[in-house]
Design brief:
The protein has 109 residues and is mostly helical. The longest helix is centred in the middle third of the chain and has 62 residues. It is rod-shaped, with a radius of gyration of 29 Å. Keywords: Membrane, Transmembrane, Transmembrane helix.
């Protein structure tokens, strides 16, 4: 059994194949961009949740120490630790010079 194809049919088949590959790649790019946007949005929400939880824990411990402990040293330590943590976090947050770039192997700089 032999198949007889004209040059126009071969070119049309090749064109359809190229179009399918092009559509597939465009869809994967769009999906990758959507996934990256979703990840960025969830990172912000996750960070806000962790900040609120940590702040609640620190405030709770401070309240317990202020209410129930009469030792001045313990009071000063408990009140100063959140300041040190906040200073460290703010310093790191404000010195970020580059937002998360996504590099893949083979990308040019």
């Amino acid at each position: 059994m032999t198949v007889q194809l004209s040059p126009e049919q071969v070119l049309a088949g090749f064109g359809v194949l190229v179009a399918l590959v092009w559509v597939w790649r465009a869809g994967s790019r769009r999906a990758r961009r959507a996934a990256e946007a979703a990840r960025a949005g969830s990172r912000v929400v996750s960070l806000a949740g962790r900040v609120l939880l940590t702040a609640g824990c620190l405030v709770g411990v401070q309240w317990l120490v202020i209410t129930y402990v009469d030792n001045l040293t313990v009071l000063l330590v408990v009140l100063s630790i959140p300041d040190v943590i906040a200073a460290h976090v703010l310093t790191r947050a404000l010195t970020v010079t580059e937002l998360g770039t996504t590099r893949r192997p083979g990308d040019r700089r």
